[in-house]
Amino acid sequence: MSFLTKIASGYWHVADSQTGYTAINNKALKLIDWNEMYTRYGQPNDLLVRLNVYNLRVRDVPIKPVYNIGEKSGIKLRKVVFTISWLLVKKFVWRMREKYIIRDFHPLVLFYFTGFFFWVITFLLTMRLVYYWIVNYHIPPINALAVMFSFMSANLFILFAMWFDMESNKELK
User: Fold this and answer.
1) pLDDT digits 0-9 by tens, 53-62
2) Rounded distance, CA 54 to CA 114, Å?
3) What is the DSSP letter of 142?
4) In whole angstroms, how far apart are CA 119 and each of 4, 46, 80, 131, 167?
């Protein structure tokens, strides 16, 4: 979840975003629309994304969690993982739109879009490859090359987009 939060929020230096421990200044308190804040598990993730859109600095502070003896968590892991993952996908798209299209255009949006486009092409070409394998027990070499090209292109575009995002947000440490 922490890695997905890094991608969604743009705060690549934050090691543990899941604790919920937050200290926030008055400026940030006034900028955030608290009525639209996610209210369940995942609120720290939502908060990080919103803080990034406003270009606010975030610092990772190590804390030691304290649990009472015999205390059990109320988290249902199967439900929370999918719920927070979906939240992070939505917040990632929201951050891209708000920060890199509406407020100030950055080409990393084009890199992400092109990378995801190539991922779709890779999936479709792979399905075609599987179909040829099942029907003919033979894969035409040009099809295999097309899958490999689209797979490599998707990964390169997404990695460059992530790099641009890291560079764009490095002053927010």
Assistant:
1) 999 998 887 7
2) 26
3) H
4) 18, 26, 26, 18, 24
Residue 49 tokens, joined? 């994304």
Closest to 17 (Cα-Cα) out of 26, 9, 29, 25: 9
Copy the structure tokens of residue 125: 């070409």
The encoded tokens of residue 74 equal 């109320």
pTM as predicted: 0.84
Could you tell me the two tokens for 92?
């990632």
Using the 8-state DSSP alphabet, how is residue 69 labeled?
T
- In the numeric block, which tokens belong to residue 132? 């040829």
Which tens digits make up the pLDDT trace of 75-131?
A: 777 888 899 999 999 999 999 999 999 999 999 999 999 999 999 999 999 999 999
CA distance 133 to 113: 30
Instruction: Report DSSP letters for 70-100, one per residue.
Output: T------HHHHHHHHHHHHHHHHHHHHHIII
Q: Which residues contact 129 (CB under 8 A, 6 or more apart)?
A: 139, 143, 144, 147
| Range with top average pLDDT, 29-33, 34-38, 76-80, 105-109 | 105-109
Hey, what's the torsion of the CAs at 98, 100, 101, 107, to 10 degrees? -160
